[in-house]
Amino acid sequence: MARPVWSGVLSFGLVSVPVGLYTATDSHTISFHQLQRGTSDRIRNRRVNERTGEEVGLDDIVKGFDTGAEYVLVEPGELDEIAPGRSKAIEVAGFVDLDTVEPIYFDRTYYLGPRGEQYGKVYALLERALAESNRAGIATFVMRGREYLVALKSEGGLLTLHTLHWADEIRDPHQEVPDLPGKVEPTAAEVKMAMQLIDALALEWHPEDFHDIFREKVKALIEAKAAGESVEKAEPAAAPTGVVDLMEALRASVERARSPKDTGEKASTSRTTTAGRGKKPAAKKRTTGSGSGSLRSLTKAELYEKAAKAGIKGRSGMSHDQLADALSHTGRS
Q1: What pLDDT score was predicted for residue 160?
Q2: 227-241: average pLDDT
Q3: Of 122, 212, 240, 241, which is least packed with CB atoms within 10 Å of its CB?
Q4: What is the pLDDT of residues 56-106, one digit of tens each?
Q5: Angle between the 320-330 and 300-310 helix axes, to the nearest 10 degrees?
Q6: Is 313 exposed, middle or buried (0-12, 13-18, 19+ CB in 10 A)?
Q7: How far apart are CA 141 and CA 133, in angstroms?
Q8: For 99-126, what is each residue's pLDDT tens digit?
Q9: At the topology level of CATH, where does 6-25+82-169 sit?
Q10: What is the three-class DSSP state of 158?
């Protein structure tokens, strides 16, 4: 059972309940050590006194604010003494319509649980009230020497706490992003065709259908290098679509999404004819089985078309070989 990363009291009005804050997500990023090139020597980061060059222990380190003329020293305990909410309380200031909180404000997510069975009824009451009203409680609290603005939500029968960015932390996109369209307006025909493409590529949201493909490729790279082998390089990124051929690209995309089987067969036939004239095929044929061998000779775009026709879930996040394997299991070679 996980231990809470923070514990205190959640209060709204004159009602309060002891709660614990639990981490809701994990990071599966593959970690690497830093080594000096040409050796197996580890490179480590140390806390070193800039003047003497000697390493300094954590207990001997204090915080210092640079005023320009000198440093103002602050002990860690002094921050705890002045921190708002030092009584370890999450006090809800009010409840807002959940739909009015823009996604850009959300940062990290935590689970919030009651600290004891005797507080279950109060906890369940708040959870149900938030669920039925579609509202979120807005509050502030202090954790690890920092004050957070948070939104308290009901999700799947429990309370979740989402840390929010402060208003002055949100950057103005017009100052940060160059080359925004501005007054450029697409034509009505282009908008209609784009909406048709969106409809053709519509799918239901099932997060379990998607997985970290890059992480898997990193693992495969490590395994291949350990065995002295090489790995297949990723396909290059698609070329930018120009303004002149925008409608044609949209129209072709809609046709491909709506009838992937026909498009795939035409593409396959065209490539076979080209190879028969003595030209190099577009993709090298690989054989790993009776069904998947012919599939692996297709391009990733052709495989995706077949996967869409077969209704394979998670196809948008699959690699070339994963699409071929998934199609081979359906018997569609």
Answers
A1: 97
A2: 74
A3: 240
A4: 998 899 999 999 989 999 887 787 777 665 558 898 999 999 999 999 999
A5: 40
A6: middle
A7: 24
A8: 999 999 999 999 999 998 888 999 999 9
A9: Ku70; Chain: A; Domain 2 (2.40.290)
A10: strand
- Residue 90, judged by CB atoms within 10 A of its CB (0-12, 13-18, 19+), counts as buried
Q: From start to end of the chain, where are the E strands?
A: 6-12, 15-23, 63-66, 71-74, 89-97, 106-114, 135-143, 146-155, 158-164
Distance CA 275, CA 62 (A): 71
Place of tokens 């009824």: 121
Tokens of 17: 């309940």
Per-domain boundaries in the chain:
6-25+82-169, 188-330
In whole angstroms, give the CA distance from residue 122 to residue 17: 7
Q: How many CB atoms lie within 10 A of CB 12?
A: 19
Q: Give the C-alpha separation, 86 to 146, whole Å.
A: 11
Sequence-distant (6+) residues with CB within 8 A of 90 are 8, 9, 10, 11, 19, 139, 140, 141, 150, 152, 161
* 3 state DSSP class of 293: helix
Per-residue tokens: 91: 């006090």
Q: What is the CA radius of gyration of the chain?
A: 28
Contact status, residue 297 vs residue 283, Cβ threshold 8 Å: yes
Between CA 130 and CA 135 the distance in angstroms is 5
DSSP string, 181-200: -TT----HHHHHHHHHHHHH
AA letter at 189: A
Count of all residues that appear for the chain in the document: 333
Q: What are phi and psi of 48, to 5 degrees?
A: -120, 135
What pTM was computed for the model?
0.61
The per-residue pLDDT for range 12-45, each reduced to its tens digit, is 888 889 999 999 988 888 888 999 999 999 998 8
